[in-house]
Specification:
By secondary structure, this protein is mainly α. The protein has one domain. Helices cover 69% and strands 0% of the residues. The protein has 2 helices and no strands. The two termini are 35 Å apart. The relative contact order is 0.21.
């Protein structure tokens, strides 16, 4: 599959955006009073799973965008001519 430059940049931006937003959310959840009661609460654990999953998906999407941009910069491979049958 070939991605356009626009699609590749979009995917890369989504990956970066994910890594900007979700760690901030983790800090907010960590500081929330509902997160701790003699250890982590269900509130914290559910949000930690949500954050971890979102970061994993954002990383994968960003990686696809990065690979799409790298592939767009490479010159296309030369096409082999079909052999003629005598």
């Amino acid at each position: 599959m070939v991605l356009s430059r626009r699609a590749s940049w979009f995917l890369l931006a989504v990956g970066v955006w994910t890594w900007v937003i979700w760690p901030r959310f983790l800090r907010a959840i960590w500081a929330d009073d509902r997160s701790w009661d003699d250890g982590p609460t269900s509130f914290f654990l559910v949000h930690a799973v949500l954050i971890g999953t979102s970061l994993a998906i954002g990383t994968a999407v960003g990686w696809i965008g990065w690979r799409g941009l790298r592939a767009a910069r490479r010159p296309p491979a030369p096409q082999a001519e079909p052999q003629r049958q005598p």
